[in-house]
Amino acid sequence: MNILTTGQLAKKAQVNVETIRYYERRGLIPEPLRSESGYRHYSQDSIARIQFIKRAKELGFSLKEVSELLSLRVDPNTNCADVKRMAEVKITDIKEKIHALQRIKEALTKLRASCQGSGPAGKCPILEALDT
Amino acid sequence: MNILTTGQLAKKAQVNVETIRYYERRGLIPEPLRSESGYRHYSQDSIARIQFIKRAKELGFSLKEVSELLSLRVDPNTNCADVKRMAEVKITDIKEKIHALQRIKEALTKLRASCQGSGPAGKCPILEALDT
DNA sequence: ATAAACCCTGTACCTAAGTACGATGTCAAG
DNA sequence: CTTGACATCGTACTTAGGTACAGGGTTTAT
């Protein structure tokens, strides 16, 4: 069980088979060796690779950014600072998203407070506010 | 200047002409009257309608939800409470998004702190964390 | 009267991150 | 030796919210 087929890798890494092919097309996982008949053969390392991708995604990195992280890892000319910078950019980015959502939340909260919850919708102050 | 063509409406409402056609297809704006030659003729009300859509979008409502808001407005059987409920659902929704982003932000902040910013990227603790 | 600037329709394209499918080939079990 | 479960490929479809043509017709300004 040292070598994995696409389906086995998919199961172990908890992704769809098609996702693996997709990641390969996107260059996120290297092209694996093939059997005589053309079947892909993956090593155990591939599980870790897919999990790396999944974790980075959970941290808000796009697949494009994941590629960059993966390249940084391999390129001997890059250093830690490059990685750290990417993390910082992403943090800033996420902070902005949070602020935007907070502004929206406050606006909605005010609108909610303006509405008594009775009477026809046609005269709802929430809808009227949107009309202004 | 009482009546507007698509292009004039687009300019007044600050949207792309194609967006107007798109909203019409989606049923967000009613089909306007047409001139002899088939040109759409919009009233001033249409500007307000598009602005309603834009504002609702800014508050995080999808176009599908905007449709619902618009229907509520017209339907005499609905009341304010329905609108208020939609606002509440959206607020909850946005709160969840904020929390998710905050968790991500914290995870990233920790990772950033773990990295001194020097040394080869191959040994960066941020990347190592993703490998775990 | 003619060119520029509009408008019409239908359809294709865009981003992101996959998912689904049809046609075909291969492998393992009974 | 056949059936079922897998594998391959290329391509199309998905969601959301538009945007961009191409190939026509119309209006307006000069």
UniProtKB/TrEMBL annotation, chains A, B:
Residues 1-72 form the HTH merR-type domain. Mediates the mercuric-dependent induction of mercury resistance operon. In the absence of mercury MerR represses transcription by binding tightly to the mer operator region; when mercury is present the dimeric complex binds a single ion and becomes a potent transcriptional activator, while remaining bound to the mer site. Gene3D superfamilies: 1.10.1660.10. Pfam families: MerR_1. GO terms for molecular function: DNA binding; DNA-binding transcription factor activity; mercury ion binding. Keywords: DNA-binding, Mercuric resistance, Mercury, Transcription, Transcription regulation. This is Mercuric resistance operon regulatory protein. It comes from marine sediment metagenome. GO terms for biological process: response to mercury ion.
